[in-house]
Specification:
By secondary structure, this protein is of the alpha/beta class. The protein has two domains: 276 residues, 3-Layer(aba) Sandwich (Rossmann fold); 244 residues, Rossmann fold. The chain contains 18 helices and 22 strands. α5 crosses α6. The chain is globular and about 75 Å long. Bound molecules: glutamine (GLN).
Length: 533
């Protein structure tokens, strides 16, 4: 079939969950047998979010091909089980960079380079390049930001042009907010009407409206919205707050969003959706009564989007183990030997979070020492794994000033150090060790048992590495290097076999855990945590 393009825009306020709606629609289309991909346009000038801190942008997600991406791509993968790539997340910066490169090459020789048509053409090229791969029946493109923002205007102009060019093969879904005014005891649709007017002024007539709301919107009110906004009454859909984002596909299906998309794009239905596996996950999520208590030790405690993929991975594995996840964020900046016992002793398992820089690092060592001495199931991820190595070096190997050269460039025991190829790097953007790498597992180790395979592929995002010169000293002292890169010999996983579950991965397993396929290492950690209750 010809590729269909679906554009998802948002109005009234940000954070309405365009990513969740896009992911849910993709889930529904996939479960009916279509091939789907989701793409996000971010209207900021950064080339990618790799140099933004989590306060600005939440977690930075990493794709298999090593692109540092918006956290919505994590939702896309968790909902769809389909790998995203660099082509699935494009910023204004990338669009301009590419146009400027072309201008310097002389591709526009003689012409004035302008937002229309050059920037909009480049945006359109990025949308269509996914469809042109021939791999997808549907390309869902989410436009970041809110209608009316100056920054997103060129993207909306490109959508207007594409809708015109593609006719029935393009569809516009607009997500808005219907606030409930407590004092008046009323839901209000006026902001939605204004937002649609704004979209229409740009030249885009939405085909489907999705109204985000805390309370049910009565049918008469939806008909009124339809009438004011030139949309069919059945194309006004509500998205009521759900207890979990993973229920949104079902809520959309109940209102026939998938049918609507098929009929509006003239797509032949190829059968009813199969939701069995998805619904089984939801059933387990609702049925779980007993809790499992996990602590996540990191510095961004007040900002839970910073560890989005980790908390979702924990949720997936807890659910498949029939437990309700009780996740406590422990501030590594405030953790000290005097209160570590109080904060961690009631836990079933501890995660030591990834991160950058010195802030909060001492608390991670304190947590790790306590966990090691109390045989607490402990999972160190990236910087968490590096801290595991440093703490072990200091307190077991007796190398008192052991450190990472990230924290102390002149340490005498650089057990974590910059890789040779990183030493000459001067640009910080997009130059870390990024994306999927193979890892060979030592037979008999916890990871080998967890994955049930000899070699796995997981995603990385870091500059520093375990220093191979210290390898045999760690092995002899009981911290074994049980995962290594088959090409370079770099140490990717450490484990203390004398302890029940004490594992650190240089890679980020959380980038590869989905609702239908929870990450095996998180499953293994979760089982150990449950056994520790
Ligand atoms: N700061 C560490 C490094 O660059 C770890 C990065 C991370 O945890 N993602 O190697």
């Amino acid at each position: 079939m010809e590729t269909k393009y679906i554009f998802v825009t948002g109005g009234v306020v940000s954070s309405l969950g365009k990513g969740i709606i896009s992911s849910s629609l993709a889930r529904l289309l996939l479960s009916r047998g279509y091939s789907v991909t989701i793409q996000k346009f971010d209207p900021y000038i950064n080339i990618d979010p790799g140099t933004l801190n989590p306060y600005e942008h939440g977690e930075c997600y990493v794709t298999v091909d090593g692109h540092e991406a918006d956290l919505d791509l994590g939702h896309y993968e968790r909902f769809t089980d389909i790998h995203t790539t660099r082509a699935n997340n494009v910023t204004t910066g990338r669009i301009y960079q590419s146009v400027i490169d072309k201008e310097r090459r002389g591709d526009y020789l003689g012409k004035t380079v302008q937002i229309i048509p050059h920037i909009t053409d480049e945006i359109k090229r990025n949308v269509k390049s996914l469809g042109n791969t021939g791999k997808f029946d549907f390309v869902i493109t989410e436009i970041g930001g809110t209608v009316g923002d100056i920054e997103s205007t060129p993207f909306l102009e490109a959508v207007r042009q594409l809708k015109w060019e593609l006719g029935k093969n393009a569809l516009s879904i607009h997500l808005t907010y219907v606030p409930y005014l407590k004092a008046a005891k009323e839901l209000k649709t006026k902001p939605t009407q204004h937002s649609v007017k704004q979209l229409q002024a740009i030249g885009i007539q939405p085909d489907i409206l999705i109204l985000r709301t805390e309370k049910d919107i009565p049918p008469a009110m939806r008909r009124k919205v339809a009438q004011f906004c030139n949309v069919a009454p059945e194309a006004v859909i509500q998205s009521v707050d759900a207890s979990t984002i993973y229920k949104v596909p079902q809520l959309m299906h109940e209102q026939a969003l998938d049918n609507l998309v098929l009929s509006l794009t003239g797509t032949e239905s190829i059968g009813e959706p199969d939701h069995a596996a998805w619904n089984e996950y939801l059933r387990k999520l609702d049925a779980a009564k007993e809790t499992v208590k996990i602590a996540l030790v990191g510095k961004y405690v007040e900002l839970q989007d910073a560890y989005k993929s980790i908390s979702e991975s924990l949720m997936h594995s807890a659910t498949y183990c029939d437990r309700r996840l009780e996740l406590t964020y422990v501030n590594s900046e405030k953790l000290s030997p005097s209160d570590v016992e109080e904060k961690l002793s009631g836990m079933n398992g501890v995660i030591i979070a990834p991160g950058f820089g010195q802030r909060g690092i001492e608390g991670k060592f304190t947590a790790l020492k306590w966990c090691r001495e109390h045989d607490m199931p402990t999972f160190g991820i990236c910087l968490g794994m590096q801290c595991m190595v440093i703490e072990y070096a200091r307190n077991v190997l007796g190398l008192e000033d052991a450190n990472s050269t990230e924290m102390n460039p002149s340490t005498r025991h650089n057990v974590i150090d910059l890789m040779e190829e990183q030493k000459s790097v001067s640009n910080l953007g997009g130059t870390m060790r990024l994306g999927a790498y193979e890892c060979r597992l030592r037979p008999g180790s916890i990871p080998a048992a967890a994955y049930g395979r000899e070699t796995v592929s997981e995603r990385h995002r870091h500059r520093f590495e375990f220093n191979g010169e210290y390898r045999s000293r760690f092995e002899e002292a009981g911290l074994e290097c049980v995962g290594e890169n088959p090409d370079t010999g770099l140490v990717e996983i450490v484990q203390a076999p004398a302890l029940t579950w004490f594992v650190g991965t240089q890679y980020h397993p959380e980038y590869q855990s989905t609702v239908l396929h929870p990450n095996p290492l998180f499953m293994s950690f979760m089982k150990a945590a449950i056994a520790n209750s």
